[in-house]
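can u do me a favor
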């Protein structure tokens, strides 16, 4: 017996289709039904590769007693946060207000008449444990509260909605705000501190912070932290750590320790796109560590092999869990990726096993008796180690890496358990196309293509960008998702901002291809029309015609696992102004920075991408030159430069360098051009 979610396109929603809970998707009919029946709404938000979402689905959401009580006393709604990041953002903020922390699954209780939350939590166990009440106990207590404590309920909701509205408006700072140069220095120093090595806790890539730390190294700020050393260490942690899959390529989401050893094993497209771009940027600064190039190359091979649809777009994610064998009842975390010592002894010669000890390999293992591979040293891997890793690839996939062009996805647990896999049973892949996440990967590929001079990277990026351009418009409007050829859900601010950036990055890696700029301009026009806030400045998360079901209309400025939409959007506006000479874009960029200046001043740790946008606004540089000269500049670290190929140069010159709204004297030699470019990147 299945519920309404059996018809959903979302893999996450379909995972709950056999729950005894009478789930609804988020829709007008569900909200109207809750109001008509005066039933409080139980809203549960998660995503397909979320481990604790999966645990709760198998425990509390599969329990008959809980389902009976839930169905009689609540209107239960399931939301995939990857489909509706706008809903997730609002209610996650409410959770953080109520509990001081966030995370998924996000379980929140709403009044049906106004959709304002009155209680929230994350994982609720079936029975009381871990210091948490059992889920049925929570449901019963909250229903009693909803029915009997009406005055307190209204007061509680009033405080929550007031806080949400205040946060959305972003009131101006009452203190004297810093000048641009000092504000940028403060943001850079804060981000550098954020990614400085810590001694406890989980380790996340945090690329928006690392990106700002790296770009600030050229600005010669005085600081207690060595920005270049900190940025390099973040690259080494990623490329050498267990967060990187040294056998199959691709990066896991984070590690559960401060040593970058044992990952939470899901692989998210958005992480991989950002990390590829960051490692390429590190390489372009002159830090040409071979592990960076190897990690980028391996990630692109993984992307091409496992995460690219036949149509050219990229899949969203791969789960952390997989089945040890077809008879297993439940998948286990990391099974596809880890190695027992006895297995390694069978696969490798004694000499090879000894060589593999350059990774964290021991008889006792480092993850539940098995081994996650983490490199102990940087530098080039030996030929023997490359052979060893090839053997492990063959053991995992059942085929050698040289002969495995495409590894088809397991789209659900049933496919994973019943398909005839030649090696291990793989994790489930969420095959939906998300514009924002694809765009981050396109940007990473475009950057890496220019830095490493790899045409394949650019080819993959261009195919994905063309798929989005050709398939994501319905009735003239840009859409966020695609399920097996069907576009759905109007695009949100991150989709617009990240795709425009991706198009500009493609243009930067191949300036002769003018079509990317033309597409970026067209998307920017729609972005401005439907999401720009004329009253407050900056971009709303959702368009004017798709915000009716939201209790507040937010403007994303904080960076999380992905950059903030407004940070990326403002930087895009500066780039567009340089490339088109249309100063309307620069006016919008100025208004956007003004809109968020108070939060940049008060909470620089929240918004590194806004500081990156400020860097673009302050130090932007346009370089006009010949194809030959531009191609020689593309692999260099020029984080606030845009390129324009021209043959119409002053006589005797090799190029023109323009700083914002002024141009320098024509460069008369290549050396002179490089000197002007470097000076322009740090105008002080």
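np, heres the sequence
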């Amino acid at each position: 017996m299945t519920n309404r979610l059996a018809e959903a396109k979302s893999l996450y929603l379909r995972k709950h289709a056999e729950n005894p809970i009478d789930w609804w998707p988020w829709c007008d009919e569900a909200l109207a039904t809750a109001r008509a029946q005066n039933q409080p709404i139980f809203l549960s938000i998660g995503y397909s590769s979320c481990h604790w979402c999966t645990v709760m689905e198998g425990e509390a959401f599969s329990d008959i007693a809980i389902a009976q009580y839930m169905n009689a006393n609540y209107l239960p709604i399931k939301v995939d946060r990857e489909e509706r990041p706008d809903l997730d953002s609002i209610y996650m903020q409410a959770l953080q207000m109520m509990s001081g922390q966030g995370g998924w699954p996000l379980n929140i209780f709403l009044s049906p008449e106004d959709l304002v939350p009155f209680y929230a939590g994350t994982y609720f166990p079936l029975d009381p444990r871990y210091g948490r009440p059992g889920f049925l106990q929570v449901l019963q207590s909250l229903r009693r509260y909803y029915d009997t404590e009406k005055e307190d309920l209204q007061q509680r909701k009033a405080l929550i909605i007031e806080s949400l509205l205040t946060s959305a408006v972003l009131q101006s700072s009452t203190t004297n705000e810093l000048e641009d140069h000092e504000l940028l220095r403060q943001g850079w120093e804060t981000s550098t501190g954020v990614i400085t090595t810590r001694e406890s806790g989980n380790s996340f890539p945090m690329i928006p912070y690392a990106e700002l730390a790296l770009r600030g190294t050229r600005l010669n700020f005085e600081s207690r932290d060595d920005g270049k050393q900190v940025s390099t260490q973040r690259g080494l942690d990623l490329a050498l750590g267990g967060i990187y899959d040294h056998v199959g390529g691709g990066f896991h989401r984070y590690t559960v320790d401060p040593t970058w050893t044992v990952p939470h094993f899901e692989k998210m497209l958005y992480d991989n796109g950002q990390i590829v771009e960051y490692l390429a940027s590190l390489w372009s600064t002159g830090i040409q560590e071979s592990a960076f190039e190897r990690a980028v190359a391996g990630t692109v091979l993984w992307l091409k092999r496992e995460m690219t649809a036949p149509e050219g777009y990229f899949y969203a994610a791969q789960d952390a869990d997989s089945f040890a064998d077809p008879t297993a009842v439940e998948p286990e975390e990391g099974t596809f990726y880890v190695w027992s010592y006895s297995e390694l002894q069978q696969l490798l010669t004694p000499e090879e096993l000894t060589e593999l000890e350059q990774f964290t390999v021991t008889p006792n293992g480092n993850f539940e008796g098995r081994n996650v591979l983490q490199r102990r040293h940087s530098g080039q891997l030996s030929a023997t180690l490359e052979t060893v890793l090839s053997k492990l690839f063959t053991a995992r996939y059942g085929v050698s890496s040289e002969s495995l062009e495409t590894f088809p996805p397991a789209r659900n647990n049933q496919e994973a358990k019943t398909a005839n896999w030649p090696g291990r049973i793989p994790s489930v892949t969420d095959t939906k196309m998300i514009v924002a996440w694809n765009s981050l990967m396109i940007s990473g590929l475009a950057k890496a293509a220019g830095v490493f001079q790899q045409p394949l990277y650019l080819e993959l990026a261009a195919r994905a960008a063309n798929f989005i351009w050709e398939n994501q418009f319905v009735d003239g409007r840009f859409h966020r998702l695609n399920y097996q050829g069907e576009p759905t859900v109007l695009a949100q601010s991150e989709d617009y901002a990240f795709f425009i950036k991706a198009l500009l990055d493609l243009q930067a890696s191949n300036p002769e291809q003018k079509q990317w700029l033309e597409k970026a301009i067209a998307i920017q026009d729609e972005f401005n029309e439907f999401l720009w806030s004329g009253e407050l400045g900056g971009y709303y998360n959702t368009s004017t015609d798709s915000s009716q079901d939201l209790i507040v209309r937010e403007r994303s400025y904080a960076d999380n696992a992905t950059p903030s939409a407004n940070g990326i959007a403002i930087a895009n506006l500066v780039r567009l102004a340089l490339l088109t000479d249309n100063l309307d874009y620069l006016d919008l960029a100025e208004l956007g920075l003004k809109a968020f200046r108070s939060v940049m001043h008060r909470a620089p740790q929240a918004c590194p991408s806004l500081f990156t946008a400020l860097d673009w606004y302050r130090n932007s540089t346009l370089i006009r030159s010949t194809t030959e000269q531009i191609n020689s500049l593309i692999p260099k670290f020029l984080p606030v430069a845009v390129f324009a190929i021209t043959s119409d140069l002053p006589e005797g010159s090799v190029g023109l360098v323009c700083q914002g709204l002024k141009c320098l004297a024509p460069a008369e030699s290549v050396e002179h051009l490089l000197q002007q470019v470097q000076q322009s990147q740090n105008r002080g």
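The CA atoms of residues 214 and 229 lie 9 Å apart. hope that helps!!
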